[in-house]
Amino acid sequence: MDILITGGTVFASRYTAEYFAKAGHNVFVLNRGTRPQSEGVTHLCGDRHDAAHLLKNRHFDAVIDVTAYCGEDITGLLDSLGDFGAYVMISSSAVYPETLPQPFSEDAPCGPNSIWGDYGTRKLDAENALLERVHDAYILRPPYLYGPMNNVFREAFVFECAEQGLPFYVPQSGGMTLQFFHIRDLCRTVEVILEKRPRQHILNVGDPVSVTVNDWVKLCYGVLGKVPEIRYVPGSVPQRSYFPFYDYDYRLDVSAVQSLLPELTPLDKGLAESWEWFRENRELVVRKPLHEYISENFGGNQ
Fold it and tell me: How is 65-134 classified by DSSP, letter by letter?
């Protein structure tokens, strides 16, 4: 297939571009050319809001939109596109208000989420703008994505602590749960959708089993053959100052997508892949001052 992928230079969009290129498809990536491009793809250098000169006269069998963050992003790209087949947008679980009963199902009402703020409402605007124009588009709502090429300072932070033999500080009792989805499994889901065209067009995606913070930290340390000394931090301390996730315990109902993709990457295997990528690409991770906060406020990291 001829596939257009928006972005193609950082984490989810880059991995997606390389995944489909390695699968034998003709992959075109649309970005402004400010970062190095992957091998095996065709780079269309331009802005998604003004790309008619690049796209209008081309046919794409599929559009995989990884970088739409608001309604204007959708309308800008659609105005530039010529003929295309399937359209798959990567949205977010942030479109569900945190006050709803959990796990969130696809038919739950969407709206503002106080944890994610504008990010969630803008993603929802993008979804609505897409469905107004492309009625048969597919929308995927993942929880936390992880895996190779993840430039967000999440598992990378834990790996650094494990590597240096440091204790790890977790919020309160460490019982908060996290739901993940490996980036390869996201690509596999898109692949199945393009092949089978399922009847349901809005799908939560993610591992059906959540993991506690304590267990996640242990898995990350375990990748390096280490066991963490876990130290617990009271809830009065701002969680994001020393820990890479918000104080937000939520779950997605992913039963609808399980029939399409019943076998997923085990979390320990996925984290091992994350570590192998990180150890060779440290400079690509967007760091946050978590180490510094711990050192200044918890009497050092020793």
Answer: E----SHHHHHHHHHH--EEEEEEEE--GGGS-TTS-SSBPTTSPP---TTTTHHHHHHHHHHHHHHHH-
